[in-house]
Design a protein that fits this description.
Length: 92
């Protein structure tokens, strides 16, 4: 049984959106790891004599990485929603 061009295009779009969602999910996890490491470095800075000077930098990196992770998760959720329910986006 051969797929029509429209079915083939739908399948290609589904696979592309799944890959994109996987990419955004992986980026979000990486950003969460970076954020966690920077929060740990922030805590560790209390025990270093000169660590206090690095604390704002660790905090900045931790907050920015956490913000990036949240944005990547939101984008992943929108991608999966569009993949599973494309008719909602065509109605708007």
């Amino acid at each position: 049984m051969r797929l029509s061009d429209e079915e083939r295009e739908q399948q290609r779009l589904y696979v592309a959106l799944t890959r994109r969602a996987l990419l955004f999910g992986a980026l979000a996890l990486i950003a969460l790891v970076i954020s966690a490491v920077n929060f740990l470095a922030l805590i560790h800075a209390f025990w270093q004599p000169m660590g206090v000077f690095n604390m704002p930098l660790y905090l900045l990196f931790a907050v920015v990485a956490l913000w990036a992770a949240v944005n990547f998760f939101r984008t992943r959720r929108r991608t999966l929603e569009y993949r599973d329910h494309p008719e909602r986006f065509f109605e708007e």
